Automatic annotation (TrEMBL):
Chaperone listed as a keyword: yes
Compartments, record wording: Cytoplasm
GO cellular component: cytoplasm
Cross-referenced PANTHER family: FAD ASSEMBLY FACTOR SDHE
Record bears the keyword Heme: no
One Pfam family of this chain: Sdh5
This protein's UniProt keywords: Chaperone, Cytoplasm
Main location: cytoplasm
Full protein name: FAD assembly factor SdhE
Amino acid sequence: MDLPRPTISEALDPDAPLDEADRGRLRWRCRRGLLENDLFVERYFRAHEAPLTWREARALARLMDLPDNDLLDLLLARREPEGELVDPDVRRVLDALRSAPV
């Protein structure tokens, strides 16, 4: 019996790379309402998409759960992660989003 594909939050090996279909779903999930956020996310995917792991995907998805203006404040370093977002994986992804090459 085939098991269903793991969702971003259910991956068995957090350091396993995402396959092409999962990366596509994650890219779609990361579409934002603010152009500024989309620019950060697009640069991140250009730099980090191929080796993206489930661990990074989960951290990115947690950031994408934020309202657009809160996400933009984090991306522009107007504020730092708080509460549930204080996590080393989220921090690594946020730092990569902030520093992705133009």
